[in-house]
Amino acid sequence: MIDSYDIAFMKQARGDMIGGRTHEITVVFENGFTTDPVTDEKKPVYDELKVPSVVTEISSQVKIDRQLLDSIDVEGGDIWFSIAIELIADIYENIKRVIYDGKDYEVLSKDKKGIGERNHAEFVGRRIT
User: Fold this and answer.
1) Burial annotation 6-42 (CB, 10 A radius, 16+ → b, else e)
2) Which of 3-12, 48-57, 103-112 has the least mean pLDDT?
3) I need a labelling partner for 96 at 20 to 30 A (CA). Which of 44, 89, 114, 129 fits?
4) CA angle, corner 15, sides to 13 and 18, nearest 5?
């Protein structure tokens, strides 16, 4: 059975494993709404947060242009990224886009991950052209 010591160890081990493998990304999230004064239409307001993330660029280097990743049809140019949950816990549900290496990506899927305790979130992003 996994106890609190195991969970603490796994959290520390994950931190050790990703050390030196992170890149700064900008997470774009909905942060409330504003109302158009003319049409009275509600429009989302977006905010940004810079966080460290492990990023994997999904490419066609192995002659595969498309593949399934966690039931998402991914293509060359898409990215997979992982962020420590404590950095985004309060905005997790509202994350819509990410900016990495000067390129915009829309979020296709997101999942909270971890054994015994959620300690990171994994995302798949598709390049916005």
Assistant:
1) eeeebbeebeeeeeeebeebebbbeeeeeeeeeeeee
2) 3-12
3) 114
4) 110
Residue 107 bridge partners (DSSP): 125
Is the pLDDT at 40 greater than 70? The verdict is yes
Residue among 84, 125, 79 nearest 106 (CA): 125
Contact indicator for 122, 14 with CB cutoff of 8 Å: no
Res. 128: pLDDT tops 60: yes
Global pTM?
A: 0.77
What's the pLDDT score for residue 105? 95
**Quick one: tokens of 98?**
């990410």
Q: 107 and 80 in contact (C-beta within 8 Å)?
A: no
Q: How far is CA 104 from CA 18, 21, 62, 126, in A?
A: 23, 21, 24, 8
